[in-house]
Specification:
Number of strands: 3
Order of helices and strands: HEHHEE
Distance between the termini: 44 Å
Strand order of the largest sheet: 1-3-2
């Protein structure tokens, strides 16, 4: 059975390709709603870092990064500064456009 190409379908065993395809299909309906939740949160709460959003909205950091990248590519959010994180690392602050 041939499956459509997805960005997560990489080389590997048939089982891993199936798992990647199944995971991508399962995540697809959530992507829009997660991006919408993040965008509404930023509009209401004001500028935040990825870590702030992940902690407050109880989403994995990787999910927040992916959704924020999607929002930024569409011009819905933009970087508005940098703050220092708890261990000295710089964290970018984001706001809605």
């Amino acid at each position: 059975m041939t499956q459509p190409d997805l960005p997560y379908a990489r080389h590997g065993s048939m089982h891993s390709r199936h798992a990647s395809y199944s995971g991508a299909r399962a995540a697809a309906p959530l992507a829009g709603s997660q991006a919408d939740r993040i965008l509404r949160f930023l509009r209401e709460a004001g500028p935040r870092t990825y870590h702030d959003i992940a902690d407050i909205k109880a989403l994995p950091l990787a999910t927040v990064c992916a959704r924020m990248n999607w929002l930024a590519q569409r011009g819905l959010v933009r970087s508005c500064g940098v703050v220092q994180g708890p261990h000295g690392a710089k964290r970018e602050v984001w706001e809605t456009t």
